[in-house]
Amino acid sequence: MKTPAVKFNERGTRLMDQGKLAAAMEDFRKAIKAAPDWSVPWFNLGLVYKFQHNWPECLRYNQKAVALDKTDAGGWWNLGIAATALGDWREARRAWRGYGIDIVDGDGPPLLKLGSTPIRIDPKG
Length: 125
Hints:
mainly alpha
């Protein structure tokens, strides 16, 4: 039998996949309230904020997701994206390290020699 948190999270995921982000966010919040120590709905709420380019909230929810589950590669990745977008270089470095990228400490933007690197382009934005 599924717990209420699992049910809310699953419904939120379906709503998110349908593009109904406000409704999805409500369900993810209900899942968090029902199981505050479960990282998955924290990550999912952070993902919605990532889709909206709301970097402060994306950062906040992914920080909580990785604090609850240090093995959450998606949480570390999205935390790195949000921190980089905000220019929070210490947090970005921490996130990229958590994801598995070897990066040195520092206060400024990391200067990495990555060679050829794919990038995503948003043709609509």
